[in-house]
């Protein structure tokens, strides 16, 4: 029997006396920032505990994570190996997908990624990992791993609350049984009373045909779910204890909470290059240096959140009217959306950045006092880990559930007023400027309500920090999984 991981000291940790006794873990994220970044963070967490870690991706996506892995390896005693695999032939990837919305492109890609199964199989035969941790959107990896006798653990960039709520909505066929005139419903059998609008849940019967590939991948992922060894979740016990328990007892599945994984990026340099680095980042940080502590609202909708011109213009008016300084990250937009004279009016008070920013550095800058987010789970948890109250503006996927967690359960969020789930920006009704103005004023206000939110999120920040430290809940769950896999390895 080998010795077990007991320390998260980044310098020297071994699990056994021989290399072949190290736990070998293979991570395979899907090719999107919102999935690659937390999985590479996770890979770092396990490598720091002495696991021999390989990250698999395709050449086109390696640029997003190579700088992070190189920097990690420059000081790590257990370096991460980056292993590239290619499609057998580019022609085999379905037609021209560039005209589809970014999210649909990703999901078409997820479906076609099954073409990678042969090269993936070669990698497994060569490396013989003790487990495969692969994206939920790569369900075929379960079959390839099983053929090689390797357990597959899935990674879904979500939290226990959303997993439990999503399961309950489906299990109780809530949408199907809702009377046609009823617009709201309460999610059954959850520890808290959670009310939602019908329009905030994806309704498969009303799905745009361009989403068919998405449906196929989701369907397959759900079928495979019960065959998985378990799931890795980027969350921590103290954040949502009722839902960790509910997930384990009611859903009866194995899951390990190992987050907030973004906290493994401790140095400024780690945070700066996460996601491949950016040009606008340094300008933004310099701008923030000149602002008062806690005075700035940071507004960002993840890696793919896009909006119509009409919506962007409303946002511009709302942010201006809020009276707070702001950093606003805009994606997929040309200059023409900016209202006339707007840039001059907000000069010195607002900064608009088109493109990628170093989000972890911005969130943790002393000048930032709140975060308006699309409630992507990474962003939400990064906001919590930075101790920031959040303005919630979900767009699609499980973001509306995350909004409920932030607003109703954790009581650290203020709803902006997004009411319709849709992947296509033009299908979402425009949220008026006044709603954003009011939400920002509530977030940045001084009364007991705003102070209470700030106090609660600062407490959660502290709990998150402790969770990943030696002896903390996430630290221990990393150890629990490694121990279990080592015991399995000793048996087989
Ligand atoms: N992110 C970033 N810079 C940006 C936009 C996003 O660093 O300009 C990072 C962010 O820190 C998070 C991830 O990209 O880790 C986005 O994940 P999330 O789940 O929030 O949203 P998604 O992009 O998947 O919708």
Uncertain runs with pLDDT below 50, 5 residues or more? 1-20
Number of helical stretches of at least 4 residues: 19
Strand order of the largest sheet: 3-2-1-4-5-8-9
Radius of gyration: 22 Å
Measured as a percent range, the helix fraction is 40-55%
Main β-sheet description: 7 strands, parallel
CATH superfamily of the largest domain: Glycogen Phosphorylase B
Structural class call reads alpha/beta
Quaternary assembly: single chain
CATH class of the largest domain: Alpha Beta
Q: What small molecules accompany the polymer chains?
A: uridine-5'-diphosphate
**What number is the mean pLDDT?**
88
Shape type: globular
CATH architecture of the largest domain: 3-Layer(aba) Sandwich
- Strand tally is 15
The CATH topology of the largest domain turns out to be Rossmann fold
Beta-strand proportion? 5-15%
| Tally of separate domains | 2
